[in-house]
Amino acid sequence: MKLEIFDFIEEATGHLCELEDQLEEASDELEKFFEFEMEDFEGFLNINTRVKTKMSLKEKILRNNYYSRYENAEEMIYDLSDLIGIRIECRFIEDENKLYRKLLKVFDVTEDGKYFSTESNPDVKLKLDDKQPQRQKNGFKIFRIDGKYRLGENEITFELQIKSLVNMFWGEIEHKILYKNFNYVMIEDFFRDIMGSIKENLSMIDRQLMILHDHINEMDEDNDEVRKNQFQKLLSKMIHNMYSHKIKGDIGFVVDFRKPCDIIVKYIFEKSKVYDVSSYSITFLGILGRLKDVSQNEISFIEYIEFERYIKFEDEYEKRLGEPILGSLNQDFMWNLLFRILFDIEIGTDTEDFEGFIAFIKDEFLENLKSNGKLNSRFEDWQRNDIVDKVMNAIADVFQENTCIEFVNYDNIERINSKITTRVNRVKNFEDWRDQAFEVVENIKQDIRDILE
User: Fold this and answer.
1) Which CA distances in Å does 440 have to 400, 436, 447?
2) Over its length of 453 residues, how does the chain's per-residue pLDDT go in tens digits?
3) Which residues fall within 8 angstroms of residue 279, CB to CB, at 6 or more apart?
4) Of 75, 180, 254, 358, which is most buried by a Cβ count within 10 Å?
5) Which letter, b or e, does each residue of 365-381 get, where b requires 16 or more Cβ atoms within 10 Å of its Cβ?
6) CA distance 97 to 409
7) Which Pfam families match (predicted)?
8) What is the H or E stretch that residue 189 is in?
9) Is 312 exposed, middle or buried (0-12, 13-18, 19+ CB in 10 A)?
10) For the chain, how big is the Rg over CA atoms in Å?
11) From CA 148, how far away is CA 52, in angstroms rounded?
12) Is the pTM of this model over 0.85?
């Protein structure tokens, strides 16, 4: 049986095909309109338009988990802000702001204070009440404006961007190397630092050389922890590469699943009770042999996951973490993908592997609390247990309200644990805990929500 999300995708791409002629017509009309409005501006270079493709739509649905956010595919299609993409290209970065100011002057007719049109063409509307430029997830800013175009009786959404030559150059590099390239890059953070340096200031060569120097020193450092991380990174890369081919062969394209590969590797090494470098080498070779064994296995990424028996949880913490995942397993593609790969690699039943993984995630948070030196020295056992119980339930509360796979990305687990340690260590004694427990717990919940945004 197919995952429902793929039926949703088929329905969505069907609606997109039905709109194709209208979108192409609207794209042509909008290109002509904005070219006419901008042609007398000194910094203006070109207008570039594109209509969203079926493959791009498929990737966006999976990446943003739209299946769980919309009642049906048609509603989602008409709610997308970028069925048509329009880019006004200009010479310099300062021209971006000047072009935006020009749009504010030209689009001066409004009925609701949000969307504005021109006197010459009321069918083209721009949402100009948002602050511009907008800050992206990567930290950089972009002039990005939502728009609507009335074509006959239909209203079609589009996204307008204003970009200088430098930012177009930067955007192409980022899009191909970091955003669309899902091949695992072992030194991804290094590349991000280099590209961020170029974006901020092309003359900061010394900064680039410093990053390069530090990176090479770290790779050569004779340090057990560094070597362990290298083992895990290499194995995660190999798993990613192997399953990338399988995913592309099954669904036609590859999604970004590097973070799930990282947590799978962490789980495998933890399950193997590997604590020293020599054991890491042995375990690493064993997993390589297992990957070789399963490399020829046929695997489907569009089918339901079904278990051989009911899942058993060891305690309430595991139950509160595990049940939301069970509910999302055949609804959320990334959860399904994580466990599909884990079950394929691990020896044993799928049920046992699922139970083991949930116990592992629980312990990643629980052991952080149990190993807290200040928590152990300041409180008696029963007092410490009360604190641990409330904090663990706070984690479960947020997980149940937002069962996203980002919760188990290992860097997020470390960030959550760091925030929890900081909050708990501020409590000096149990009397303070009684007075502050509610506030501390609520702050921890908000910390986690902020990390997952």
Assistant:
1) 19, 6, 10
2) 567 888 888 888 888 888 888 899 999 999 999 999 888 887 788 899 999 988 888 888 888 888 888 888 888 888 888 889 999 998 777 888 989 999 999 999 988 888 999 988 999 999 998 889 888 776 678 899 999 998 877 788 899 999 887 777 666 656 555 555 555 454 556 556 655 655 554 334 334 444 444 454 455 445 666 667 777 888 888 888 888 888 888 888 888 889 899 999 999 888 877 666 556 666 777 777 778 778 778 888 888 999 999 999 999 999 999 999 999 999 999 999 999 999 999 888 999 999 999 999 999 999 999 999 998 899 899 999 999 999 999 999 999 999 999 999 989 999 999 999 999 999 989 998 999 999 999 999 999 999 988
3) 272
4) 358
5) bbebbeebeebeebbee
6) 37
7) RelA_SpoT (PF04607)
8) helix 188-200
9) exposed
10) 26
11) 15
12) no
Q: Please name which of 50, 54, 52, 64 lies closest in space to residue 12, comparing C-alpha atoms.
A: 54
pLDDT at 175: 59
Q: Which residues are 311's β-sheet partners?
A: none
b/e burial code for range 150-169 (CB count within 10 A of at least 16 → b): eeeeeebbbbbbbbbeebbe
pLDDT in tens, 42-53: 778 889 999 998
Go through the chain and tell me how many residues it has.
453
Under a CB-based contact definition with an 8 Å cutoff, are residues 301 and 246 in contact? yes
Number of C-alpha atoms within 13 angstroms, CB side, residue 236?
26
Cα 18 → chain centroid? 30
Which amino acid is it at 8? Answer: F
Q: Which residues contact 109 (CB under 8 A, 6 or more apart)?
A: 116, 117, 118, 119, 122
Angle at 188 between CA 452 and CA 221, to 5 degrees: 115
**Domain annotation for the chain: domains and CATH numbers:** 4-168 (3.30.460.10), 182-220 (no CATH), 225-316+329-348 (no CATH), 363-452 (no CATH)
- Copy the structure tokens of residue 424: 């708990």
